[in-house]
Amino acid sequence: MLTIFHGTARPQSNSRKIANFYHELLEERNVPHQFFTLEGLDKSIFSKTYHDEKSPEQAHIEKDILAPTKKYIFIVPEYNGSFPGMFKGFIDSTDVKSCFYNKKACLTGVAEGRAGNLRGMEHLTNIFNHIKMDVLHFKIPISQVDKHLDENGKLNDPEIIKLIHIQIDLFLKF
Length: 174
Ligand SMILES: Cc1cc2nc3c(=O)[nH]c(=O)nc-3n(C[C@H](O)[C@H](O)[C@H](O)COP(=O)(O)O)c2cc1C
Description:
Elements: E1 2-6, H1 14-28, E2 34-37, H2 56-66, E3 71-77, H3 85-93, H4 96-99, E4 104-110, H5 118-130, E5 134-135, E6 140-142, H6 158-173
Parallel strand pairs: 1-2, 1-3, 3-4, 4-5, 4-6
Flavin mononucleotide binds next to α1.
């Protein structure tokens, strides 16, 4: 299974809009996939570790969404020069062996500023390699995200859309 993973719980986030765009694109291309977001999860999940007893919600996420995933497309906002702490908290709460070991990852960064979360994607690459994941070399930093969304919050920059198509083609073969 291929999973689009939206890496923040912040409501109405711009990275969610970018993740939605990936979802629509995969639908158009008839690529089977599922969508997962940290938005709306019980907040206690972000401060647990894998030693803690799992809530029914977390057990369901791990068993039915993460464990069956073979490839992840991570859409990750930049918070204070890196990826969101709640995302790391989430990873730390999981059974990494079943959820992440030996899986493949593709990364897109989303930022209000000019860096497009390049640094956060590098931080994540190191962490993902540590938990035995292979990361696609073709990462997309989306800077100044507001400028690339229309009034309905839809990505409308042809250059970025072209890059996303290239990235998806590469990732499907990866
Ligand atoms: C806690 C926090 C820290 C942030 N730090 C940065 C930053 O270091 N650099 C940057 O370009 N944007 C930063 N932003 C703005 C986000 O990149 C911006 O909100 C963008 O839309 C992606 O985040 P979102 O998906 O939550 O909307 C920060 C936002 C939050 C909530």
